[in-house]
């Protein structure tokens, strides 16, 4: 999972953001691997895990682009909350995100 982190959205455009995320995440991953080895008493030697953070020239617009791709799928209407549902259930309907249950 850490080998293909793709940055998206305007807040990822800060200078050196990708480099800092990669560096900090690598430190966390390495510390956890070392801790796992210590817990095993040295019997288990985890393989080093690569951390790769990808920046790209369209990352500022990637969130919008992904949303537009989702909206163009046939399943999109199934993952939307209707006004009727909102009026019946109220704001708590927003706590459930059906996207993760239907889209594959």
From TrEMBL:
Source species, domain of life: Eukaryota
Pfam families xref list: Actin
Secretion signal span: none
Designated name of the protein: Actin-related protein 3
Taxonomic placement: Eukaryota, Metazoa, Chordata, Craniata, Vertebrata
Protein encoded by which gene: LOC104963046
């Amino acid at each position: 999972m850490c080998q293909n982190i793709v940055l998206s959205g305007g807040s990822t455009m800060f200078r050196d953001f990708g480099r800092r995320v990669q560096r900090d995440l690598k430190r966390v991953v390495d510390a956890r691997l070392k801790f796992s080895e210590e817990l095993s008493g040295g019997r288990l030697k985890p393989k080093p895990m690569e951390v790769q953070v990808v920046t790209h020239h369209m990352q500022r617009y990637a969130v919008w682009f992904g949303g537009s791709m989702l909206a163009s799928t046939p399943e999109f209407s199934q993952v939307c909350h209707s006004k009727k549902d909102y009026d019946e259930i109220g704001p708590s309907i927003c706590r459930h995100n059906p996207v993760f249950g239907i889209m594959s």
